[in-house]
Amino acid sequence: MSRSVLVTGGNRGIGRAIAEAFKAAGDQVAITYRSGEPPEGFLAVQCDVTDAAAVDAAFAEIEEKQGPVEVLVANAGITKDTLVLRMSDDEWSSVIDTNLTGSFRVAKRAAKGMLRLRRGRIVFISSVVGMLGSAGQVNYAASKSGLVGMARSLARELGSRSITANVVAPGFVETEMTEVLPEEKKAEYKAQIPLGRYATSDEVASTVVWLASDGAAYVTGAVIPVDGGLGMGH
C-alpha cells in the first residue's frame, strides 16, 4: 500500500536520499524545504519549521493532496558551530529552535492525524554528536540529544495507538557538507571509525525506511546508530 510520507528538509543530502528511498518503495512522498529549488518528483512544500503557522499550512496542503501523514521523518536541521565562549544567544537559540523545537512542531502536527488513523511512524534524524558531544557544537549536540528524550516520551504517549517513535543517529556521512573538509581532517575522522569510512546517504535512508516498515512494527523508543561503530556504547 502506498502511504503518505513527509520528509522535512528533504531537498538535499540525507533528507533527499530518504525521500528518494520512500519514493522507490512506492510511497507518496512530500518534502519540505526552506530555500533553493526543490527536486522534481515530490510534493514539495516550502516551510520553515521554526514558524508554527507555516508548519500547520504545510500539513494542510499535504493532507489535501496526498492524505494524512502516516510516516514522518523529522530531518530538517542547521549548524552554527563555534566554541562555547564565543557562542551567542542567537547561535544557541536558532539551532535549538530549528533542530529540536522544529521537530517537536512537526511531530505534534503529524500525531493529530496518526491518532485518528490509529497508526503511524515517526523517525527523528539525530547524530552521533548527540551521543558523544563535540567541541564547538554545544548547541547542535544539545539539539540532537534532545530528540532522544522526545522520541522516547512520544513512544510511551502514542504507543497504545500503534504509533512508533524512533531515532536514527548517523555518524559522518558523504554529503556536500563533508566534501569540503580538508583531506587531513577527513583522514583524522576516518581513523576514529572502526569501519574506516564514511556512510553513504543511502545507508542512512535504508535504516529509516526499515523503521517505517512492517518489519519494525515492534521497534519503538530506539536509537539506531548508523555510524560505522564511532559511537558504540552510547
From TrEMBL:
Enzyme class at the top of the EC tree: oxidoreductase
Swiss-Prot/TrEMBL keywords: Fatty acid biosynthesis, Fatty acid metabolism, Lipid biosynthesis, Lipid metabolism, NADP, Oxidoreductase
Residues annotated as domain Ketoreductase: 3-176
E.C. code: 1.1.1.100
Catalysed reactions listed for this entry: a (3R)-hydroxyacyl-[ACP] + NADP(+) = a 3-oxoacyl-[ACP] + NADPH + H(+)
Record's keyword annotation contains Lyase: no
SMART domains reported for this sequence: PKS_KR
Pathway info: Lipid metabolism; fatty acid biosynthesis
Alphabetical list of Pfam families matching this protein: adh_short_C2
Gene3D superfamilies: NAD(P)-binding Rossmann-like Domain
Domain of life from the UniProt record: Bacteria
Molecular function (Gene Ontology), one example: 3-oxoacyl-[acyl-carrier-protein] reductase (NADPH) activity
Quaternary structure annotation from Swiss-Prot or TrEMBL: Homotetramer.
Family per record: Belongs to the short-chain dehydrogenases/reductases (SDR) family.
Function: Catalyzes the NADPH-dependent reduction of beta-ketoacyl-ACP substrates to beta-hydroxyacyl-ACP products, the first reductive step in the elongation cycle of fatty acid biosynthesis.
Protein name: 3-oxoacyl-[acyl-carrier-protein] reductase
Native organism: Nocardioides jiangsuensis
Lineage: Bacteria, Bacillati, Actinomycetota, Actinomycetes, Propionibacteriales
Gene: fabG
